[in-house]
Amino acid sequence: MVSDWRKFEQETLRIQARFDTELESLRLQGILTQTDMTKVKNQVTVSRNALLDTIRRNDLQNEIQEELFASLIKDYINSIQKIIDDALFKLGEDIFLKYKFRQVYEKANLYAKERNFSRNQTESLEYFSKGALAYALKMLPKQNKWSSNKAEYQKMINGFAEALQEFVESSQIVVPSISANMRNP
After folding, report:
1. pTM of the entire predicted model
2. DSSP summary character for residue 30
3. Among 128, 123, 32, 141, which residue's Cα sits nearest to residue 80?
4. Which region holds residue 68: left if phi is over 0, alpha if psi is between -120 and 50, else beta?
5. What residue spans of the chain are helical by DSSP H?
6. pLDDT tens string for the chain (185 positions)?
7. Cβ contacts of 7-12, under 8 Å, gap ≥ 24
8. Burial class (CB in 10 A: 0-12, 13-18, 19+), 99
9. Cβ-based neighbours of 74, under 8 Å, separated by 6 or more
10. Cβ pair 19, 80 in contact under 8 A
């Protein structure tokens, strides 16, 4: 059980570091306001306190406590990710797509590293991802009028995640549901 908590803690710290970097970059660009940053900091504090309370509880079975902990982490990640996604979407659909495609690729690449995939397999994954992103960007409307419906672009991202998973599986590489984990709430 302790090793599971350590894994959760490491993953949470890794995600928090990524969020901190992305949020600060968006703040420096003037995309996120100080109010947005305060909202994020409050969310972090509430989430951290809820997680600590969950760890300290002695009245729950280990499995239930672990499920509650995982659920709290997922809620936290989704709420911060929504703030980042909304800010990036304001910058333009091309920036939003690049960011989301990169997220999917990073998840697949991390999986590949954990499974000690060969250099050729990893390079194939990278080339496939770059090609898919180039195609998605080429498919964007040429006009300056962007769609305000982020769901349309999320469908494109989910399609990429599913295609990436199929590509990986056809290369004799198994990736556990990349697409299901990349969908926005």
Report:
1. 0.61
2. T
3. 32
4. alpha
5. 2-28, 34-56, 62-91, 93-114, 119-138, 150-170, 178-182
6. 455 667 767 777 777 787 788 888 888 877 778 888 888 778 777 777 777 777 777 777 777 777 877 787 787 778 778 878 887 888 788 888 888 888 888 888 888 888 788 888 888 888 888 888 888 888 777 654 555 667 777 777 888 888 877 777 776 544 444 444 454 44
7. 8/69, 8/70, 8/73, 11/73, 12/51, 12/73
8. middle
9. none
10. yes
Residue 79 burial by Cβ neighbours in a 10 Å radius (0-12, 13-18, 19+) = middle
Token code pair at residue 121: 């397999």
| Structure token digits, residue 23 | 């949020």
Dihedral angle at the C-alpha atoms of 93, 71, 23, 82, nearest 10 degrees?
30
Structure tokens, 64: 């239930």
